[in-house]
Amino acid sequence: MVVGTVGWLLVGVLAGAPEPRVVSALEKVRPGALPPGEKQARLSLARGECEGVQVVLPPGTTRVKAAPLVLKGAGATLEAQVWREAFLDVRIPSNSQGAPGPWPDPLVPVETPSTDKKAPTVLYVELCAPEAQRPGTYQGALELQADGVAVKAVPFTAEVQPFALPATSSLPNSFGISLYSIAKGHGLKPESPEAQALLRDYVAALLTHRVSAHGMSMNPPPVRFDESGGAQVDFRAYDAEVGPFLDGTALSSGARFTTLDVRDSKAARTDAEKSAYYRALAAHAKEKGWRAQLFFYAKDEPKPEDVALVRTQALRVRASGKDVPVLVTSPLDEALRGSADILAPTLNCFFTRPGPQTCRNVVPLATLRGKLGPQVKVWWYQSCNSHGCTGGATSDAAVEKAYSDWASYMVDHPAPLNRAMGPLAFLSGVDGELYFDTVFAYNTKDPWADLFEFGGNGDGTFFYPGTPSRPGFERHAPVLSLRLKHVRDGLEDYEYLRLLESLGERAFAQEAVRRLVRSGYDVQRDPRQWEQVRRDMTARLRQRWEAVEEAKRSGVRSK
Q1: What pLDDT does residue 551 have?
Q2: Domain 173-528 sits in CATH 2.60.40
Q3: Torsion of CA 490, 492, 498, 502, to 10 degrees
Q4: Could you tell me whether strands 477-479 and 342-343 are parallel, antiparallel, or unpaired per DSSP bridges?
Q5: Residue 470 CA, distance from chain mean position
Q6: Which pTM value belongs to this model?
Q7: How far is CA 193 from CA 103, 184, 199, in A?
Q8: For position 115, what pLDDT does the model report?
Q9: Where in the chain is CATH 3.20.20?
Q10: What's the fold here for domain 5-164?
């Protein structure tokens, strides 16, 4: 039950009640290490952007209730979403940058009780401004009860900027997700309507965070072949599954997938049938008006014995025409030359550093482009090469250094490392990002207790299965992670930088991004520096945006 404003006031603020503090979203608040905070929250966000902040109560609070946080101001009210941050108990650190013990990551309902009185209560508060939001100042207050006692309200001020970010990511990306993994994590049958609806919820959650998905049900559309070898494809179920995410109807923002993986079909047995099938898929996407970048995901991380298979796959796909690029996850490799239309090495393959290398062929992006055909795009992805594939610190200091400091999606790594891939993409000029999975641990363990895979805590998993038993949902639903918020924030950083560049501020954008990231393993860790760069970019964008708008108005008046 939500208590009304009068009810909160009647409870009163009792002497000795815990006082909330506002902390940057770029701090990971752990037991025994409470960062300093402010008494009020100040947020700045573009139209079409979401921004979060943390509200911290000191240890000892078991249950928290939050009244709805509504900010009023220049236009329609803004209503915040509020979660409580739960902790993942890390047993084996990802490397020397991590540490055993509780780390914040799952975002659970506010009223989910805490079981650890030594841990602080941390709320993640998020505001989103629709693209149509009127710019200006909005204000409100977050009113809380801690174990039945009203605490001091936290004032919130949000400045909605006049410039807007696009609903769809400007950086193509594709993160894996699987219906079968989701069903296993939730204890459901994959073919059940509940599991099918749950898949849509997970994919919508990714798209809300500017992330496109590949895999999903993994079911190819049924196909048969006529006497002339043409592919007759039944797209009804396929369109129902992927269509809303490609045509902009899945979310109210109109966001779309940036990419679409081409699912292979066992019904296509010969090379000619496979080519006809790929051709039909590409033609269907074009007919539907889907703007996503199609790609065929060849054998993942091919070994020398897989080269022949990758070459065969590439020939089959290319026989269908030029509309389905072949993606190969590999460093530059002479044995695979000519097979990839999208080459995707790991992040480590782009940046040379002193000491042992964690990629077998490190080639900076500018050099790499010179060695590839002009039509070949370059993506990148993270793997355990960014944190070490065995877990924990190694005894060899040089090797440990080689696997440290990289941009990382691990739970037990600093938030700026979780956020860095977007700015790094702008710095480097890479064409897109791939990531292998977002629910991998659902296959192997209880994600609430353990996310250690491939030597890292959270490698391949950005969600937790929300069920009636944990954290107590009425129906099954995805539980978001703090890291997914950081991924989103990094992609929004990319949009800020790209918008600056489009407004003639390329030099300013380049200077700004280098204050955040200088290479894949040289990332600014200080949240204050990230926030200052964002303030500087916002001020310059606002100035340029208003100048452009004034020029437009002057042009209209002169006519």
Answers
A1: 86
A2: no
A3: -170
A4: unpaired
A5: 23
A6: 0.95
A7: 34, 14, 10
A8: 81
A9: 173-528
A10: Immunoglobulin-like (2.60.40)
